[in-house]
Specification:
WD40/YVTN_repeat-like_dom_sf, 2 helices, Quinoprotein_ADH-like_sf, five-stranded antiparallel beta sheet, four-stranded antiparallel beta sheet, Pyrrolo-quinoline quinone repeat domain-containing protein, Lipocalin, mainly beta, PQQ_rpt_dom, globular
Protein backbone atom coordinates (compact mmCIF):
# COMPACT_ATOMS: atom_id res chain seq x y z
CA UNK A 1 0.00 0.00 0.00
CA UNK A 2 1.17 3.52 -0.75
CA UNK A 3 0.60 6.27 1.80
CA UNK A 4 -0.36 9.86 1.17
CA UNK A 5 1.32 12.60 3.20
CA UNK A 6 -1.92 12.84 5.19
CA UNK A 7 -1.78 9.07 5.94
CA UNK A 8 -4.76 8.20 3.72
CA UNK A 9 -4.13 4.75 2.24
CA UNK A 10 -4.12 4.32 -1.54
CA UNK A 11 -4.96 0.86 -2.92
CA UNK A 12 -2.45 -0.55 -5.37
CA UNK A 13 -2.56 -3.92 -7.10
CA UNK A 14 0.72 -5.43 -8.27
CA UNK A 15 0.47 -8.23 -10.83
CA UNK A 16 2.98 -11.06 -11.00
CA UNK A 17 4.42 -12.02 -14.39
CA UNK A 18 2.80 -15.42 -13.88
CA UNK A 19 -0.60 -13.71 -13.60
CA UNK A 20 -0.43 -11.35 -16.58
CA UNK A 21 -3.13 -11.42 -19.18
CA UNK A 22 -1.61 -12.93 -22.30
CA UNK A 23 1.67 -14.77 -22.90
CA UNK A 24 4.59 -14.34 -20.54
CA UNK A 25 7.85 -13.34 -22.22
CA UNK A 26 9.45 -16.41 -20.63
CA UNK A 27 6.96 -18.88 -22.09
CA UNK A 28 5.96 -17.35 -25.41
CA UNK A 29 6.30 -19.57 -28.46
CA UNK A 30 6.10 -18.51 -32.12
CA UNK A 31 2.50 -17.82 -33.03
CA UNK A 32 0.54 -18.03 -36.19
CA UNK A 33 -0.11 -15.03 -38.41
CA UNK A 34 -1.92 -12.18 -36.64
CA UNK A 35 -5.53 -11.55 -37.48
CA UNK A 36 -6.66 -8.63 -39.57
CA UNK A 37 -8.01 -5.56 -37.69
CA UNK A 38 -11.50 -7.06 -37.61
CA UNK A 39 -10.45 -10.57 -36.65
CA UNK A 40 -9.64 -12.35 -33.40
CA UNK A 41 -6.78 -11.41 -31.13
CA UNK A 42 -3.67 -13.50 -31.79
CA UNK A 43 -0.42 -12.47 -30.01
CA UNK A 44 2.55 -12.65 -32.34
CA UNK A 45 6.07 -14.03 -31.86
CA UNK A 46 8.71 -11.53 -32.97
CA UNK A 47 10.47 -13.80 -35.49
CA UNK A 48 7.38 -15.01 -37.29
CA UNK A 49 5.69 -11.61 -36.94
CA UNK A 50 8.56 -9.92 -38.75
CA UNK A 51 8.15 -12.26 -41.73
CA UNK A 52 4.42 -11.58 -41.83
CA UNK A 53 4.99 -7.83 -41.71
CA UNK A 54 7.35 -8.01 -44.69
CA UNK A 55 4.78 -9.93 -46.66
CA UNK A 56 1.95 -7.57 -45.71
CA UNK A 57 4.12 -4.56 -46.48
CA UNK A 58 4.81 -5.86 -49.97
CA UNK A 59 1.12 -6.23 -50.72
CA UNK A 60 -0.22 -3.15 -48.94
CA UNK A 61 2.46 -0.53 -49.36
CA UNK A 62 4.35 -1.45 -52.49
CA UNK A 63 6.46 1.62 -53.13
CA UNK A 64 6.89 2.84 -49.54
CA UNK A 65 10.59 3.28 -48.79
CA UNK A 66 12.49 0.32 -47.35
CA UNK A 67 13.60 2.50 -44.44
CA UNK A 68 10.04 2.45 -43.12
CA UNK A 69 9.95 -1.34 -43.11
CA UNK A 70 13.32 -1.41 -41.37
CA UNK A 71 11.86 0.54 -38.44
CA UNK A 72 8.86 -1.69 -37.75
CA UNK A 73 8.55 -3.52 -34.47
CA UNK A 74 10.24 -6.63 -35.80
CA UNK A 75 13.55 -4.82 -36.40
CA UNK A 76 13.56 -2.01 -33.84
CA UNK A 77 15.23 -2.47 -30.48
CA UNK A 78 13.10 -1.56 -27.44
CA UNK A 79 13.53 1.96 -26.11
CA UNK A 80 16.52 2.25 -23.77
CA UNK A 81 15.95 4.52 -20.79
CA UNK A 82 14.19 4.80 -17.46
CA UNK A 83 10.97 2.83 -17.13
CA UNK A 84 8.86 5.55 -15.55
CA UNK A 85 5.75 3.37 -15.38
CA UNK A 86 7.38 0.14 -14.18
CA UNK A 87 6.00 0.52 -10.65
CA UNK A 88 2.71 1.88 -9.26
CA UNK A 89 2.46 5.65 -9.03
CA UNK A 90 2.32 7.02 -5.50
CA UNK A 91 1.49 10.60 -4.54
CA UNK A 92 4.41 12.46 -2.97
CA UNK A 93 2.81 15.89 -2.63
CA UNK A 94 0.16 18.11 -4.19
CA UNK A 95 0.14 21.85 -4.86
CA UNK A 96 -2.10 24.41 -6.53
CA UNK A 97 -0.74 25.31 -9.97
CA UNK A 98 -1.76 26.01 -13.55
CA UNK A 99 1.53 25.14 -15.29
CA UNK A 100 4.88 23.55 -14.59
CA UNK A 101 7.64 25.75 -15.98
CA UNK A 102 10.61 23.58 -15.09
CA UNK A 103 11.93 20.84 -12.85
CA UNK A 104 15.64 21.46 -12.32
CA UNK A 105 18.17 20.54 -9.65
CA UNK A 106 15.55 19.54 -7.09
CA UNK A 107 13.25 22.54 -7.66
CA UNK A 108 9.88 22.42 -9.44
CA UNK A 109 8.87 25.85 -10.78
CA UNK A 110 5.10 26.35 -11.17
CA UNK A 111 2.87 29.29 -11.98
CA UNK A 112 -0.71 30.11 -11.11
CA UNK A 113 -2.24 32.74 -13.39
CA UNK A 114 -5.98 32.15 -13.05
CA UNK A 115 -6.16 33.24 -9.43
CA UNK A 116 -6.80 36.47 -7.59
CA UNK A 117 -3.11 36.71 -6.72
CA UNK A 118 -1.14 35.18 -9.62
CA UNK A 119 2.32 33.97 -8.69
CA UNK A 120 5.28 31.92 -9.81
CA UNK A 121 6.74 29.66 -7.14
CA UNK A 122 9.62 27.28 -6.55
CA UNK A 123 8.73 24.01 -4.78
CA UNK A 124 11.03 21.43 -3.25
CA UNK A 125 10.81 18.41 -5.56
CA UNK A 126 11.10 15.97 -2.65
CA UNK A 127 8.50 17.49 -0.32
CA UNK A 128 6.50 20.09 -2.26
CA UNK A 129 7.46 22.71 0.32
CA UNK A 130 7.44 26.25 -1.05
CA UNK A 131 11.00 27.54 -1.37
CA UNK A 132 10.18 30.93 -2.86
CA UNK A 133 7.28 32.87 -4.35
CA UNK A 134 7.10 36.02 -6.47
CA UNK A 135 4.00 37.88 -7.68
CA UNK A 136 2.83 38.18 -11.27
CA UNK A 137 0.54 40.74 -12.86
CA UNK A 138 0.31 44.48 -12.19
CA UNK A 139 2.89 45.33 -9.56
CA UNK A 140 4.61 41.97 -9.96
CA UNK A 141 7.86 41.07 -11.64
CA UNK A 142 6.10 39.98 -14.86
CA UNK A 143 2.74 38.93 -16.27
CA UNK A 144 3.23 35.37 -17.41
CA UNK A 145 5.98 32.79 -17.78
CA UNK A 146 6.74 30.07 -20.33
CA UNK A 147 7.91 26.49 -19.76
CA UNK A 148 11.61 25.90 -20.14
CA UNK A 149 14.82 26.78 -18.37
CA UNK A 150 18.14 28.07 -19.67
CA UNK A 151 21.50 27.43 -18.05
CA UNK A 152 23.79 29.49 -20.29
CA UNK A 153 22.93 32.99 -19.08
CA UNK A 154 25.69 35.37 -18.03
CA UNK A 155 24.95 34.53 -14.39
CA UNK A 156 25.44 30.79 -15.10
CA UNK A 157 22.34 30.14 -12.97
CA UNK A 158 19.42 28.04 -14.18
CA UNK A 159 16.90 30.62 -15.32
CA UNK A 160 13.13 30.52 -15.86
CA UNK A 161 11.78 33.22 -18.19
CA UNK A 162 8.73 35.47 -17.95
CA UNK A 163 7.25 38.32 -19.98
CA UNK A 164 6.22 41.68 -18.57
CA UNK A 165 3.79 43.93 -20.43
CA UNK A 166 3.85 47.70 -20.14
CA UNK A 167 2.24 48.83 -16.88
CA UNK A 168 1.49 52.09 -15.13
CA UNK A 169 2.74 51.62 -11.58
CA UNK A 170 3.04 53.89 -8.59
CA UNK A 171 6.60 55.01 -7.93
CA UNK A 172 7.19 54.59 -4.16
CA UNK A 173 9.68 57.50 -4.16
CA UNK A 174 7.50 60.12 -5.86
CA UNK A 175 4.03 58.61 -5.38
CA UNK A 176 3.42 59.21 -9.09
CA UNK A 177 2.49 56.81 -11.84
CA UNK A 178 5.38 55.68 -14.01
CA UNK A 179 5.33 53.49 -17.10
CA UNK A 180 7.18 50.22 -16.59
CA UNK A 181 8.42 49.03 -20.02
CA UNK A 182 7.78 45.61 -21.47
CA UNK A 183 10.64 43.22 -20.89
CA UNK A 184 11.85 39.65 -20.63
CA UNK A 185 12.54 38.79 -17.02
CA UNK A 186 14.80 35.95 -15.92
CA UNK A 187 14.24 34.27 -12.53
CA UNK A 188 16.83 32.20 -10.70
CA UNK A 189 15.27 28.73 -10.40
CA UNK A 190 16.96 28.13 -7.08
CA UNK A 191 16.09 31.37 -5.29
CA UNK A 192 13.32 33.14 -7.24
CA UNK A 193 15.45 36.27 -7.53
CA UNK A 194 15.28 38.35 -10.69
CA UNK A 195 18.73 37.91 -12.23
CA UNK A 196 18.09 39.23 -15.75
CA UNK A 197 15.86 41.87 -17.29
CA UNK A 198 15.88 42.76 -20.97
CA UNK A 199 13.71 45.64 -22.11
CA UNK A 200 11.91 44.99 -25.41
CA UNK A 201 10.93 48.08 -27.36
CA UNK A 202 9.14 46.41 -30.28
CA UNK A 203 5.58 45.13 -30.18
CA UNK A 204 5.58 41.41 -29.44
CA UNK A 205 3.94 38.61 -31.42
CA UNK A 206 5.01 35.93 -28.95
CA UNK A 207 8.07 34.30 -27.49
CA UNK A 208 9.25 30.89 -26.25
CA UNK A 209 12.12 29.11 -24.56
CA UNK A 210 13.96 26.71 -26.87
CA UNK A 211 16.87 24.82 -25.38
CA UNK A 212 19.29 27.28 -23.82
CA UNK A 213 18.00 30.17 -25.94
CA UNK A 214 14.89 32.28 -26.55
CA UNK A 215 12.73 32.75 -29.63
CA UNK A 216 11.24 36.23 -30.01
CA UNK A 217 8.62 37.33 -32.54
CA UNK A 218 8.55 41.13 -33.00
CA UNK A 219 5.91 43.01 -34.99
CA UNK A 220 7.09 45.49 -37.59
CA UNK A 221 5.48 47.37 -40.45
CA UNK A 222 3.87 44.62 -42.53
CA UNK A 223 6.08 41.87 -41.17
CA UNK A 224 7.04 39.71 -38.22
CA UNK A 225 10.71 39.36 -37.38
CA UNK A 226 11.45 36.05 -35.69
CA UNK A 227 14.80 35.80 -33.90
CA UNK A 228 16.67 33.26 -31.85
CA UNK A 229 18.60 34.97 -29.07
CA UNK A 230 21.11 33.70 -26.54
CA UNK A 231 20.53 35.27 -23.09
CA UNK A 232 24.29 35.08 -22.54
CA UNK A 233 25.12 38.56 -23.83
CA UNK A 234 21.83 38.73 -25.77
CA UNK A 235 23.55 37.60 -28.95
CA UNK A 236 21.30 37.02 -31.97
CA UNK A 237 21.81 33.48 -33.29
CA UNK A 238 19.61 33.98 -36.36
CA UNK A 239 16.82 36.25 -37.54
CA UNK A 240 14.23 35.91 -40.30
CA UNK A 241 11.17 37.85 -41.44
CA UNK A 242 7.67 36.74 -42.39
CA UNK A 243 5.44 39.11 -44.37
CA UNK A 244 1.96 40.03 -43.13
CA UNK A 245 -1.03 40.91 -45.32
CA UNK A 246 -2.43 44.46 -45.09
CA UNK A 247 -4.34 45.09 -41.87
CA UNK A 248 -7.92 46.42 -41.95
CA UNK A 249 -8.12 50.02 -40.82
CA UNK A 250 -8.15 50.29 -37.06
CA UNK A 251 -7.47 46.57 -36.53
CA UNK A 252 -4.40 44.45 -35.96
CA UNK A 253 -3.88 40.85 -36.94
CA UNK A 254 -3.73 38.55 -33.95
CA UNK A 255 -0.41 36.68 -34.01
CA UNK A 256 1.08 34.17 -31.62
CA UNK A 257 4.03 31.80 -31.46
CA UNK A 258 4.51 28.22 -30.30
CA UNK A 259 7.47 25.85 -30.52
CA UNK A 260 6.95 22.10 -30.91
CA UNK A 261 9.51 19.40 -31.72
CA UNK A 262 12.09 21.98 -32.75
CA UNK A 263 9.73 23.82 -35.13
CA UNK A 264 8.55 27.36 -34.48
CA UNK A 265 4.99 27.90 -35.67
CA UNK A 266 3.79 31.47 -36.12
CA UNK A 267 -0.02 31.55 -36.07
CA UNK A 268 -2.24 34.26 -37.51
CA UNK A 269 -3.28 35.87 -40.78
CA UNK A 270 0.08 34.66 -42.01
CA UNK A 271 0.95 31.23 -40.65
CA UNK A 272 4.55 30.11 -40.97
CA UNK A 273 6.64 27.11 -39.93
CA UNK A 274 10.27 27.91 -39.18
CA UNK A 275 13.15 25.58 -38.29
CA UNK A 276 14.05 26.67 -34.77
CA UNK A 277 17.65 25.53 -35.23
CA UNK A 278 18.62 27.76 -38.16
CA UNK A 279 15.68 30.06 -38.94
CA UNK A 280 14.77 28.56 -42.32
CA UNK A 281 11.15 29.22 -43.29
CA UNK A 282 9.79 25.78 -44.18
CA UNK A 283 6.38 26.98 -45.27
CA UNK A 284 4.01 29.96 -45.04
CA UNK A 285 0.34 30.52 -45.81
CA UNK A 286 -1.72 33.72 -45.90
CA UNK A 287 -5.43 33.78 -45.11
CA UNK A 288 -7.90 35.24 -47.59
CA UNK A 289 -8.97 38.66 -46.33
CA UNK A 290 -11.51 39.28 -49.09
CA UNK A 291 -14.01 36.57 -48.24
CA UNK A 292 -16.67 37.98 -45.96
CA UNK A 293 -16.78 36.39 -42.53
CA UNK A 294 -13.39 34.67 -42.85
CA UNK A 295 -11.55 34.72 -39.53
CA UNK A 296 -9.30 31.72 -40.10
CA UNK A 297 -5.53 31.72 -39.81
CA UNK A 298 -3.43 31.19 -42.88
CA UNK A 299 -3.34 27.48 -42.06
CA UNK A 300 -3.88 24.99 -39.26
CA UNK A 301 -0.62 23.24 -38.38
CA UNK A 302 0.04 19.91 -36.65
CA UNK A 303 3.63 18.93 -35.84
CA UNK A 304 5.24 15.54 -35.21
CA UNK A 305 8.91 14.64 -34.65
CA UNK A 306 9.27 13.66 -38.33
CA UNK A 307 7.22 16.31 -40.15
CA UNK A 308 4.15 18.53 -40.10
CA UNK A 309 0.74 18.88 -41.73
CA UNK A 310 -0.88 22.09 -42.97
CA UNK A 311 -4.62 22.55 -43.57
CA UNK A 312 -4.85 25.74 -45.65
CA UNK A 313 -7.94 25.40 -47.85
CA UNK A 314 -11.24 26.95 -46.76
CA UNK A 315 -14.67 27.56 -48.27
CA UNK A 316 -17.04 30.18 -46.84
CA UNK A 317 -15.00 30.41 -43.66
CA UNK A 318 -14.95 26.64 -43.10
CA UNK A 319 -11.66 24.75 -43.10
CA UNK A 320 -11.55 21.78 -45.48
CA UNK A 321 -10.18 18.44 -44.20
CA UNK A 322 -7.53 18.11 -46.94
CA UNK A 323 -3.98 18.83 -45.76
CA UNK A 324 -0.46 18.72 -47.17
CA UNK A 325 2.16 16.67 -45.34
CA UNK A 326 5.73 18.04 -45.18
CA UNK A 327 8.91 16.36 -44.00
CA UNK A 328 11.33 18.07 -41.58
CA UNK A 329 13.07 19.88 -44.44
CA UNK A 330 9.81 21.50 -45.58
CA UNK A 331 9.46 19.28 -48.66
CA UNK A 332 5.84 18.58 -49.58
CA UNK A 333 5.48 14.79 -49.44
CA UNK A 334 1.81 14.33 -50.26
CA UNK A 335 -1.79 14.84 -49.20
CA UNK A 336 -3.87 13.56 -46.31
CA UNK A 337 -7.53 13.80 -45.39
CA UNK A 338 -8.67 14.05 -41.77
CA UNK A 339 -7.19 15.23 -38.49
CA UNK A 340 -3.80 14.08 -37.31
CA UNK A 341 -4.09 11.46 -34.54
CA UNK A 342 -0.42 11.06 -33.69
CA UNK A 343 0.09 10.80 -29.90
CA UNK A 344 2.69 12.69 -27.89
CA UNK A 345 4.23 9.36 -26.90
CA UNK A 346 5.99 8.31 -30.10
CA UNK A 347 9.38 7.03 -31.24
CA UNK A 348 8.75 8.10 -34.86
CA UNK A 349 8.97 4.52 -36.12
CA UNK A 350 7.47 3.83 -39.57
CA UNK A 351 7.60 7.54 -40.50
CA UNK A 352 6.03 7.01 -43.94
CA UNK A 353 2.72 6.08 -42.31
CA UNK A 354 0.49 8.65 -40.61
CA UNK A 355 -2.44 8.11 -38.25
CA UNK A 356 -5.46 10.34 -38.86
CA UNK A 357 -9.08 10.38 -37.73
CA UNK A 358 -12.15 10.91 -39.87
CA UNK A 359 -15.93 10.89 -39.44
CA UNK A 360 -15.72 13.34 -36.56
CA UNK A 361 -13.05 11.28 -34.82
CA UNK A 362 -14.98 7.99 -35.03
CA UNK A 363 -12.60 6.28 -37.48
CA UNK A 364 -8.83 5.85 -37.17
CA UNK A 365 -7.05 5.59 -40.52
CA UNK A 366 -3.42 4.73 -41.29
CA UNK A 367 -2.34 6.27 -44.57
CA UNK A 368 0.67 6.91 -46.75
CA UNK A 369 0.73 10.62 -47.73
CA UNK A 370 3.35 10.00 -50.42
CA UNK A 371 1.05 7.58 -52.23
CA UNK A 372 -2.21 9.20 -51.14
CA UNK A 373 -3.39 5.76 -50.09
CA UNK A 374 -5.28 4.53 -47.05
CA UNK A 375 -3.63 1.40 -45.64
CA UNK A 376 -6.14 0.32 -43.00
CA UNK A 377 -8.84 1.72 -40.73
CA UNK A 378 -10.70 0.81 -37.54
CA UNK A 379 -13.67 2.31 -35.65
CA UNK A 380 -12.65 4.14 -32.45
CA UNK A 381 -15.74 6.16 -31.52
CA UNK A 382 -14.75 8.30 -28.54
CA UNK A 383 -11.30 6.72 -28.39
CA UNK A 384 -7.77 7.89 -28.96
CA UNK A 385 -4.27 6.68 -29.78
CA UNK A 386 -2.36 6.25 -26.51
CA UNK A 387 1.12 5.62 -27.91
CA UNK A 388 3.04 4.87 -31.07
CA UNK A 389 6.15 2.93 -30.11
CA UNK A 390 8.24 0.16 -31.71
CA UNK A 391 6.01 0.04 -34.79
CA UNK A 392 2.82 -0.36 -32.76
CA UNK A 393 -0.16 1.96 -32.38
CA UNK A 394 -1.85 1.41 -29.01
CA UNK A 395 -5.50 2.48 -29.12
CA UNK A 396 -7.94 2.96 -26.25
CA UNK A 397 -11.49 2.69 -27.60
CA UNK A 398 -14.78 1.33 -26.30
CA UNK A 399 -13.98 -1.02 -23.44
CA UNK A 400 -10.59 -2.30 -24.60
CA UNK A 401 -6.96 -1.37 -25.19
CA UNK A 402 -5.58 -2.76 -28.44
CA UNK A 403 -2.18 -2.71 -30.14
CA UNK A 404 -2.01 -2.68 -33.95
CA UNK A 405 0.90 -2.90 -36.33
CA UNK A 406 1.27 0.62 -37.74
CA UNK A 407 2.43 -0.78 -41.08
CA UNK A 408 -0.20 -3.45 -41.70
CA UNK A 409 -3.02 -2.85 -39.22
CA UNK A 410 -2.64 -6.40 -37.89
CA UNK A 411 -3.95 -6.72 -34.36
CA UNK A 412 -1.14 -7.81 -32.03
CA UNK A 413 -2.96 -7.89 -28.70
CA UNK A 414 -6.11 -6.60 -27.08
CA UNK A 415 -7.11 -6.33 -23.44
CA UNK A 416 -10.66 -5.67 -22.18
CA UNK A 417 -10.79 -2.90 -19.58
CA UNK A 418 -13.94 -2.56 -17.49
CA UNK A 419 -14.83 1.07 -16.91
CA UNK A 420 -12.26 2.35 -19.42
CA UNK A 421 -12.32 6.09 -20.11
CA UNK A 422 -10.70 6.16 -23.56
CA UNK A 423 -11.10 9.93 -23.87
CA UNK A 424 -8.46 10.45 -21.16
CA UNK A 425 -5.07 10.68 -22.84
CA UNK A 426 -2.78 7.86 -21.76
CA UNK A 427 0.95 7.75 -21.04
CA UNK A 428 3.88 5.71 -22.31
CA UNK A 429 7.52 5.35 -21.25
CA UNK A 430 8.53 3.47 -24.39
CA UNK A 431 8.08 0.00 -22.94
CA UNK A 432 4.64 0.20 -21.31
CA UNK A 433 1.40 2.16 -21.66
CA UNK A 434 -1.01 3.57 -19.09
CA UNK A 435 -4.77 4.02 -19.47
CA UNK A 436 -7.45 5.23 -17.05
CA UNK A 437 -10.66 3.54 -15.92
CA UNK A 438 -13.21 3.91 -13.13
CA UNK A 439 -13.21 1.04 -10.63
CA UNK A 440 -15.29 1.09 -7.44
CA UNK A 441 -15.91 4.82 -7.97
CA UNK A 442 -12.18 5.52 -8.10
CA UNK A 443 -10.04 6.77 -10.96
CA UNK A 444 -7.77 3.83 -11.67
CA UNK A 445 -4.55 3.54 -13.70
CA UNK A 446 -3.76 0.31 -15.55
CA UNK A 447 -0.34 -0.23 -17.07
CA UNK A 448 0.31 -2.79 -19.82
CA UNK A 449 3.52 -4.03 -21.38
CA UNK A 450 3.89 -2.69 -24.89
CA UNK A 451 5.40 -5.92 -26.21
CA UNK A 452 2.59 -8.31 -25.37
CA UNK A 453 -0.16 -6.46 -23.48
CA UNK A 454 0.61 -8.11 -20.16
CA UNK A 455 -0.86 -6.20 -17.20
CA UNK A 456 1.99 -4.88 -15.03
CA UNK A 457 -0.07 -3.22 -12.31
CA UNK A 458 -3.22 -1.28 -11.53
CA UNK A 459 -3.87 1.26 -8.81
CA UNK A 460 -5.80 4.37 -7.84
CA UNK A 461 -4.75 7.50 -9.71
CA UNK A 462 -2.75 9.58 -7.20
CA UNK A 463 -4.88 12.47 -5.94
CA UNK A 464 -7.92 11.24 -7.83
CA UNK A 465 -10.33 10.76 -4.95
CA UNK A 466 -13.82 9.35 -5.38
CA UNK A 467 -15.64 9.85 -8.68
CA UNK A 468 -18.81 11.94 -8.16
CA UNK A 469 -21.99 12.31 -10.18
CA UNK A 470 -20.24 14.90 -12.35
CA UNK A 471 -16.79 13.35 -12.78
CA UNK A 472 -13.73 15.57 -12.85
CA UNK A 473 -11.29 13.35 -14.73
CA UNK A 474 -7.57 13.46 -14.03
CA UNK A 475 -5.10 14.64 -16.66
CA UNK A 476 -1.89 12.68 -16.85
CA UNK A 477 1.22 13.82 -18.66
CA UNK A 478 4.94 13.14 -18.89
CA UNK A 479 7.20 15.93 -17.66
CA UNK A 480 10.41 14.74 -19.25
CA UNK A 481 10.78 11.22 -17.89
CA UNK A 482 8.51 11.91 -14.90
CA UNK A 483 4.75 11.21 -14.95
CA UNK A 484 2.59 13.80 -13.20
CA UNK A 485 -1.14 14.03 -12.52
CA UNK A 486 -3.35 17.10 -12.78
CA UNK A 487 -6.63 17.14 -10.87
CA UNK A 488 -8.25 20.35 -12.02
CA UNK A 489 -5.82 23.07 -10.99
CA UNK A 490 -3.89 20.88 -8.59
CA UNK A 491 -0.54 19.37 -9.52
CA UNK A 492 0.02 15.93 -8.01
CA UNK A 493 3.71 14.98 -7.92
CA UNK A 494 4.22 11.23 -8.02
CA UNK A 495 6.99 8.73 -7.48
Amino acid sequence: MAVRPDDRMVPVELVDDDEVVGPSPRTRTPRQRPADPDGADLPVGRAHGALVRWAVAGVVLGAIAVVSVATTRGTTEPTVGPAALAEPLAEVWAAAADDVLAAHDGVVVVQSTGTRHPRVRGLDEATGQELWSVPLGSGGIADTCHPGVTTAAATAAATAWCWRDQHWNADPASDQLVLTPQALVGIDVGSGEVISEREVTEASAGWAVEGDELLLAARGDGEIRLSRVSPAGWRTVWSTTVSLPPEPRGLRHTMWLEVTEGLAVLHGATTAVVDAADGRVLGSWTASLTEEGTILDGAEIAVTPWGFAAWSSAVEGMRLPEATWFDRSGRAVGQLVGELAEPEATDASVPDVLLVTRDGGDTLVAMSPGRGADLWQIPIAGGNVVAREQGLAVVAAGDAVTAYEVLSGARVWTRPVDGLHPEITGLSDGSSVLVTAVRARRWTSLVYRLADGGLLWSGTVPGGGEVGLIPSPPRLEMLGDTPVVWMGRTLVWVD
